[in-house]
Amino acid sequence: MTLLRESTPPPASLAPPVGPPVRAAGIHRDTWGVPHLWADTVDDLARLQGRATALDRAWQIEVERWRCEGRLAEHVGPAEVGWDRFARRARLDDTARRCYARLDPATRRWVAAYAQGINDGLAEGAAAAPEFAAAGCAPGRWRPWSPLGVFLVQHVLFSTFPNKLWRAHVAATLGPAATALFDVEAPGGSGSNAWVTPADPATGRGPVVAGDPHRILELPGVYQQVRLACPEFDVLGFAFPGVPGLPHFGHAGDVAWAVTNAMADYQDVYRERLRRDGDVVLVREADGWAPARRRVEHVVVRDGEPVPVEVIETARGPVVDHDRDTGEALSLRAPSRVEQRCGFDALLPLLRSRTVDDVATALKDWVEPVNSVLVADRSGAVTQLVAGLVPVRDDRCRREPVPAWEPRYRWSGRYAALPRTTVTGSTACANDRRPDVAALGRDFAPPHRARRIRALLAEGAAPAAVHMDTRLDVGVLRGVLGRLDPDARTGPARDLWKRLAAWDGRMAADSGDAAAYAAWRAALARGLHEHPALRPLRAPGAYDELFRPWTNPLGRIGHALDAVVAGLPGLGVDVGPVAAAALEEVAHGDPPGTWGQRHALHPVHLPVCPEVDAAVAAMRDRVALAGDSDCVLATSSVPGLSDACWRGPVARYVWDLTDRAASRWVVPFGASGRPDDPHFADQLPLWATGDLVPVETDWRLLTRESEKRDT
């Protein structure tokens, strides 16, 4: 049962209610522990948001700061050297410093206030977070630019550049024609949904904005429910812990917004030829050799020797890796580094927005990631737009690493004009190749999720029915099954064939047929991985182990299985024998059980604390997950590798523009990052079954933090 509160008439003004003491400055909490923050100025509010974040998520935000600075191994050991090496090579902290220096003065002051608020609360938050004691480390101090670094950490691998490394590997091992087999949304990428249902003038109902972003299921969650209120605005939504404001999902009373990844291609990888003259590194340019910037840093490693890291930057960007086959360096060019902007100048205007035009104007300052944005306001206006910077350059840059010394691959210095469309009727975005984004990228999600959402909206489905829809597009793989001759199979395989042929295609948690389908699909992926036609993909990789999630052949085959199966006949490969062998394997193996048993929750966390490890183990027993990678309920797994769910909806929301108090939201775990806190995972059972919690808007029903601690 969805948890809803009784709707009340909207107030005449959706500015914060006038002055009763219940709205005193400070941290207020609802019954789910969600912080509702009131301050007298925007800078005081930023400081308060930072303090609340430090109290609730001290370990999480310190880990993200260490990751930006390339200092995680210093605190948790050698396993994190690979990330620290990349962070230093990619110059994440330096980029954060540069972007901070270029902020508008008011934004710079606001971000600095947030960082100060974190410092104000970090010692208290860390004292209650068991990971610090378990890891034998202490929190440090945030710099004013640290929030920008945390944002960069969240998104540096969120775009398409690791896909280009994989395409280069496919082209080198199978030939360029085979790269099209894997032209789908990348592992670890997006998977988000957002939609708007329009206003109804006949009843006076305003639009509803709803959706669910899908990312890696990190513990604590990557999004934090929060309300930010001061005399200028009163906005609720989801924040990144460690980042001020509400960049992606918010409800300001008069206007609400939501984003999905536009799947635009805005990062490029360049092949660089380097040579050395003593400590001087020279890089090949179109007209000869030129010096590159070079320095050596040392990653401090807990329980290990320091690891030297050579940091090189060319005219294209930082060198992030080397191709082990060709010996070439690989540099990364991204708008945030080129323009020395992260998009933070959009954040305060976004909070102050009252109309769709205000949101669109605010997002003109957005940089990356490039987002599809749906915006609606109380007047009934609905806008769909794309926000961010997409460089204009040669199209080959979108496919693979390109030669840095060839002038044709230089960025032009211009960025693509991005569309804005007035929307009538229901609309949805699901990382699909739509007319407004098709020219901006190459790797889009398969179209099933978007088509399914639009069909459900046309049928008048409620948001919960959309959020939790488990119908999978099984046309390609069912077609392979249909071409098999069941009479040529053994008895058990023939029975399994009939069972799968009759299955309704829903990945329900209690479905044995869904589990049987998943088991056969996984066996098919493994069989293709072993097939002589694809076996060359298993040649040793040319890139750093950090990129293994993007360059693992079995994982890539499993993730793009429909496209691989559909495309292999064009390369002269008959998939039928592999599909038949997979059918026999499952039919004669252990019973598949139910999909919920196979599709176990697998949240990602640093395993440094026994209490958190035990909490994660308990979570797996508490919930049975439905959905699958290309369902609207996109709880992802990788066929052939594991049916465990490691990526899924990291938040759900329904923003009601008639009455904000009728809105609702949920996160996978809870408001707190501390395993002994009652709000550590209290939303998990609701999240697993599709229930939402109410958005509390009445300050009188909240508990002020100081009063709570005195009781």
Brief descriptors of the model:
disordered N terminus; Penicillin_amidase_N_B-knob; 6-stranded antiparallel beta sheet; 711 residues; disordered C terminus; alpha+beta; 10-stranded mixed beta sheet; single chain; Penicillin amidase (Acylase) alpha subunit, N-terminal domain
| Fold-level CATH name of the domain at 473-506 and 512-593 | Penicillin amidase (Acylase) alpha subunit, N-terminal domain
Q: Number of helix segments?
A: 24
What is the structural class?
alpha+beta
Computed CA radius of gyration, to the nearest angstrom: 25 Å
CATH architecture of the domain at 473-506 and 512-593: Orthogonal Bundle
CATH class of the domain at 473-506 and 512-593: Mainly Alpha
| Largest beta-sheet details | 10 strands, mixed
Query: What is the 3D shape?
Result: globular
* CATH homologous superfamily classification of the domain at 473-506 and 512-593: Aminohydrolase, alpha-helical knob region
Helix content: 25-40%
Active site: 192
GO molecular function: hydrolase activity, acting on carbon-nitrogen (but not peptide) bonds, in linear amides; metal ion binding
Region (Disordered): 1-21
Biased composition (Pro residues): 8-20
Describe the model.
The protein has 711 residues and is of the alpha+beta class. 33% of the residues lie in helices and 18% in strands. It has 24 helices and 28 strands. The strands form six sheets. It has a ten-stranded mixed β-sheet with strand order 21-19-18-9-8-7-6-2-1-28. A six-stranded antiparallel β-sheet has the order 22-3-4-25-26-27, with helices on one face. α4 (92-101) packs across α7 (146-155) and α15 crosses α20 (576-587). The longest helix is centred in the first third of the chain and has 28 residues, at 42-69. The radius of gyration is 25 Å and the shape is globular. Mean pLDDT is 93; it is low at 1-21 and 707-711.
